[in-house]
UniProtKB/TrEMBL annotation:
<dbReference type="InterPro" id="IPR003593">
    <property type="entry name" value="AAA+_ATPase"/>
</dbReference>
<keyword id="KW-0067">ATP-binding</keyword>
<dbReference type="Pfam" id="PF00005">
    <property type="entry name" value="ABC_tran"/>
</dbReference>
<dbReference type="GO" id="GO:0005524">
    <property type="term" value="F:ATP binding"/>
</dbReference>
<dbReference type="InterPro" id="IPR003439">
    <property type="entry name" value="ABC_transporter-like_ATP-bd"/>
</dbReference>
<feature type="domain" description="ABC transporter">
    <location>
        <begin position="4"/>
        <end position="227"/>
    </location>
</feature>
<keyword id="KW-0547">Nucleotide-binding</keyword>
<comment type="similarity">
    <text>Belongs to the ABC transporter superfamily.</text>
</comment>
<dbReference type="InterPro" id="IPR027417">
    <property type="entry name" value="P-loop_NTPase"/>
</dbReference>
<keyword id="KW-0813">Transport</keyword>
<dbReference type="InterPro" id="IPR017871">
    <property type="entry name" value="ABC_transporter-like_CS"/>
</dbReference>
<protein>
    <submittedName>
        <fullName>ABC transporter ATP-binding protein</fullName>
    </submittedName>
</protein>
Amino acid sequence: MPILELENLSKTYGGTTALKGLTLQVEPGSVYGLLGPNGSGKTTTLGIALGVLRASSGTVRWFGQEPTAANRRRIGALLETPNFFPYLSARQNLLLAADVKQADTRSVDQALDAVGLGTRQHDAFRGFSLGMKQRLALASTLLGSPEVLVLDEPTNGLDPQGIAEVRSLVQRLAAEGKTIILASHLLDEIEKVCTHVAVLQRGELRAAGPVSNILATADRVLLRPAPDTPAALVQQALAALPWVSDVRPETGGILSAAVAASHGPADVNRALFEQGIVLAGLEIRHRSLEAQFLELTR
Ligand SMILES: Nc1ncnc2c1ncn2[C@@H]1O[C@H](COP(=O)(O)OP(=O)(O)OP(=O)(O)O)[C@@H](O)[C@H]1O
């Protein structure tokens, strides 16, 4: 059973449409990334999923059920930076947060250990680095041992070391079996920490699935047919190859096509030659992940 199911969610703020018919499912054990540029609707999606915002239409199901207070306790969330007291220690701050959540003291110790702040727990919050502050914020989401964590831009505003700390923490928590849903505008971050991704653009879902499928480095080949060979014939032959997709005519009589990672330009050449098609030129163009992300959100 999916951990979270969003069905046909839409949200308008006055005249602004923030989400348009968003449907997605998060399976248990996945690290699910919501990827999109600023203003694409990531925060709105998480806010609706957590019941902080009301959808204009659509449904949210957690653990196969309508949202309930009991279900909500199975979810730890970090939508905005919590207000910790600067003069209190990390531990005192978490004890206060635990009190609000009705979590026990043992869960405070576990959370401090989980984020690697056990040895610094008696130090005042104000002396912490940005990365440590964010790790403490993550510790507060762990109070009460939720099965699911929902994190909005967890590395935003951190320096490179803080970013590395938070990312490795997210990976560790996922390895321990937590399902994690996180929003980010950074492709690189999603690629590093997520198993699944939904790409949002202007409130619409552009693509969703395993990171390896959606953001795979699909290379393209550029081919120039020999002068006596009609491009349409080559296009047809290419389209018939199961490991070739997205065959497109480019300018100057050139064709381009995406080739699955299992095959290379030599396979393209051989397959065409076997059908009596001779090429005057063949070139491979490696596409960066950035290029694909830009293409998806173009
Ligand atoms: N309270 C609000 N009132 C009016 N418009 C809003 C409000 N909150 C968000 N929006 C608009 O809804 C759209 C989606 O915003 P949202 O914050 O969900 O995007 P996001 O992908 O999380 O972006 P960011 O990373 O900048 O937070 C944007 O056009 C934004 O301006």
